[in-house]
């Protein structure tokens, strides 16, 4: 389960940013998670709650915004939306889709004190 290490990475990031941006408490966090990122949102949220305890993110509310998988079909020469990394192109059915987005996770917004 790599969600635990992802959660630790996020809380670490929040602690690092606290010095630079001068906040002492994290109230809400918005996470953008791509459909192709391979992240199990339910278990990530569970891990975040556990990892946040006794940090400046203790009690923070985490919001998840899903980002669709985006690819470029080499056969059609057009951008397409895909559900999984090795999906066929929804337009032509060929497996010549290069992933161009929606394959990562990031903190998109913070509400802090
Ligand atoms: Zn295609």
Structure overview:
- This protein has 2 helices and 6 strands; from the N terminus they run αβαβββββ.
- It is an alpha+beta fold and 113 residues long.
- It has one domain: hypothetical protein PF0899 fold (2-Layer Sandwich).
- The strands form 2 sheets. Strands 2-1-6 form a 3-stranded mixed β-sheet, covered by helices on one side. It has a 3-stranded antiparallel β-sheet with strand order 4-3-5, with no helix packed on it.
- Helix 1 packs across helix 2.
- The mean pLDDT is 96.
- Bound molecules: zinc ion.
Strand order of the largest sheet: 2-1-6
By CATH reckoning, the class would read Alpha Beta
Alpha-beta classification: alpha+beta
- Principal-axis shape: elongated
Ligands: zinc ion
**What integer is the average pLDDT?**
96
Radius of gyration, in Å, reads 17 Å
Strand content: 25-35%
Q: How many structural domains are formed by the residues?
A: 1
The topology string of helices and strands comes to: HEHEEEEE
> What's the total helix number?
2
Helix content: 25-40%
List segments where confidence is low: pLDDT < 50 over at least 5 consecutive residues. Answer: none
Descriptors for this entry?
single chain; 113 residues; alpha+beta; 2 helices; binds zinc ion
Topology diagram in text:
Blueprint: H1 3-21, E1 26-34, H2 41-52, E2 61-67, E3 69-73, E4 78-82, E5 97-101, E6 105-112
Parallel strand pairs: 1-2
Antiparallel strand pairs: 1-6, 3-4, 3-5
Helix pairs in contact: 1-2
The structure holds zinc ion.
């Amino acid at each position: 389960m790599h969600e635990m290490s992802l959660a630790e990475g996020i809380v670490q990031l929040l602690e690092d940013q606290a010095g630079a941006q001068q906040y002492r408490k994290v109230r809400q966090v918005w996470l953008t998670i791509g459909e192709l990122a391979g992240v199990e949102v339910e278990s990530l949220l569970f891990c975040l709650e556990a990892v946040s305890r006794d940090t400046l993110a203790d009690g923070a509310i985490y919001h998840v915004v899903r980002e669709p998988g985006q690819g470029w079909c080499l056969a059609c020469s057009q951008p397409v939306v895909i559900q999984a990394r090795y999906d066929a192109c929804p337009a032509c059915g060929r497996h010549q889709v290069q992933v161009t987005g929606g394959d990562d996770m990031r903190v998109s917004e913070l509400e802090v004190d």
